[in-house]
């Protein structure tokens, strides 16, 4: 496994900014306010000679608030699993009593500690280092994460402290061969609870307070011999209710997670039934062409009558995605999770299925013989042949004549025909029509003299007969 470096410190000292610089990404949400990061956020730094895992953590505020207590629990888990601790302090705030409290907790872990004085731009670095020398830490570095100054020196200091591991190169190759699954839904739908249940540990913060998750958190999972990357996302509310800038950024990150995923699991609270915002999320997934699974959570809290009413409502409002598998689950108690993961695997297999041109053309011919498209100005569109145009989602390109006039209803008929033929479950199908070129377009027929004379005689004879 790759060695782990944890970034620890008070709220709003720049840990998330430093995380983005080290991982060369924008995965961590950054805002000029404390308490934005709550869960542990993992990324890989590849800037040095050896890759290592960077963990962004929430700020340790020392406040006994419920959310701060849950955040502190996640920070302590990161400290426990880390090989090296990077203690981030704010050079502009100077030494604060809370920094000494955090430092004492870091020292009790027995892990190597590197102190980083962030936000030193415009300050006398020697004076800053002299002030923070009171920590008694051998390695204290000046840094400006926002301007990427001092990060190379930090990596140079970290590398010799990393434990040797011959499997680093294999681990750094990324998520090849894994199924990327984005779990989306409205606030308090149970997304973090689901991931914790699948992992069998309290990996993510779970609270009854809506909007607990802000950053999209990627979590690796291996289950039944298959590897997954689960992406926990922030709950999305209606646009009119989104006021804070942090929540707006969280929504953008969630939409980016949908685009980056291969399978999207839309979680619906069965007790609140299907809301318009759930349909909006399903629409986003369809626009991105992602495989889709509908997870109906909190199913165990309902009696039989409520379940029947919920099924009828879902069947009525989800008729436009009837190809998506609906799974009733309880993220809290773990019921239905095996069926959910099977639905995810089937949806991913359908979305990445390899289609063959010859078989697609034969299927197209059968569909055309069974039901021909409606006439257009007295002529029927002709569909000649088909070939694959890509996968995730499966794309079928059909060549023919007058394809511009094919009705949407006939296109849906073709989608359903291909879906039934290839047993494509849980994925949208895109059909692209290509108009065959007319080989005589732009060519003007030139008559010979004999043909011109015959044409004139026919015209004159026709005129005489009409008289």
From TrEMBL:
<dbReference type="GO" id="GO:0005525">
    <property type="term" value="F:GTP binding"/>
</dbReference>
<dbReference type="InterPro" id="IPR016484">
    <property type="entry name" value="GTPase_Der"/>
</dbReference>
<protein>
    <recommendedName>
        <fullName>GTPase Der</fullName>
    </recommendedName>
</protein>
<feature type="binding site">
    <location>
        <begin position="118"/>
        <end position="121"/>
    </location>
    <ligand>
        <name>GTP 1</name>
    </ligand>
</feature>
<dbReference type="InterPro" id="IPR003593">
    <property type="entry name" value="AAA+_ATPase"/>
</dbReference>
<dbReference type="Pfam" id="PF01926">
    <property type="entry name" value="MMR_HSR1"/>
</dbReference>
<feature type="domain" description="EngA-type G">
    <location>
        <begin position="3"/>
        <end position="166"/>
    </location>
</feature>
<dbReference type="Pfam" id="PF14714">
    <property type="entry name" value="KH_dom-like"/>
</dbReference>
<keyword id="KW-0690">Ribosome biogenesis</keyword>
<feature type="binding site">
    <location>
        <begin position="297"/>
        <end position="300"/>
    </location>
    <ligand>
        <name>GTP 2</name>
    </ligand>
</feature>
<dbReference type="GO" id="GO:0043022">
    <property type="term" value="F:ribosome binding"/>
</dbReference>
<feature type="binding site">
    <location>
        <begin position="232"/>
        <end position="236"/>
    </location>
    <ligand>
        <name>GTP 2</name>
    </ligand>
</feature>
<feature type="binding site">
    <location>
        <begin position="9"/>
        <end position="16"/>
    </location>
    <ligand>
        <name>GTP 1</name>
    </ligand>
</feature>
<keyword id="KW-0342">GTP-binding</keyword>
<comment type="function">
    <text>GTPase that plays an essential role in the late steps of ribosome biogenesis.</text>
</comment>
<dbReference type="InterPro" id="IPR015946">
    <property type="entry name" value="KH_dom-like_a/b"/>
</dbReference>
<dbReference type="InterPro" id="IPR032859">
    <property type="entry name" value="KH_dom-like"/>
</dbReference>
<keyword id="KW-0547">Nucleotide-binding</keyword>
<dbReference type="InterPro" id="IPR005225">
    <property type="entry name" value="Small_GTP-bd"/>
</dbReference>
<feature type="binding site">
    <location>
        <begin position="185"/>
        <end position="192"/>
    </location>
    <ligand>
        <name>GTP 2</name>
    </ligand>
</feature>
<feature type="region of interest" description="Disordered">
    <location>
        <begin position="446"/>
        <end position="467"/>
    </location>
</feature>
<dbReference type="GO" id="GO:0042254">
    <property type="term" value="P:ribosome biogenesis"/>
</dbReference>
<comment type="similarity">
    <text>Belongs to the TRAFAC class TrmE-Era-EngA-EngB-Septin-like GTPase superfamily. EngA (Der) GTPase family.</text>
</comment>
<feature type="domain" description="EngA-type G">
    <location>
        <begin position="179"/>
        <end position="352"/>
    </location>
</feature>
<dbReference type="InterPro" id="IPR027417">
    <property type="entry name" value="P-loop_NTPase"/>
</dbReference>
<feature type="binding site">
    <location>
        <begin position="56"/>
        <end position="60"/>
    </location>
    <ligand>
        <name>GTP 1</name>
    </ligand>
</feature>
<keyword id="KW-0677">Repeat</keyword>
<feature type="compositionally biased region" description="Basic and acidic residues">
    <location>
        <begin position="447"/>
        <end position="467"/>
    </location>
</feature>
<comment type="subunit">
    <text>Associates with the 50S ribosomal subunit.</text>
</comment>
<dbReference type="InterPro" id="IPR006073">
    <property type="entry name" value="GTP-bd"/>
</dbReference>
<dbReference type="InterPro" id="IPR031166">
    <property type="entry name" value="G_ENGA"/>
</dbReference>
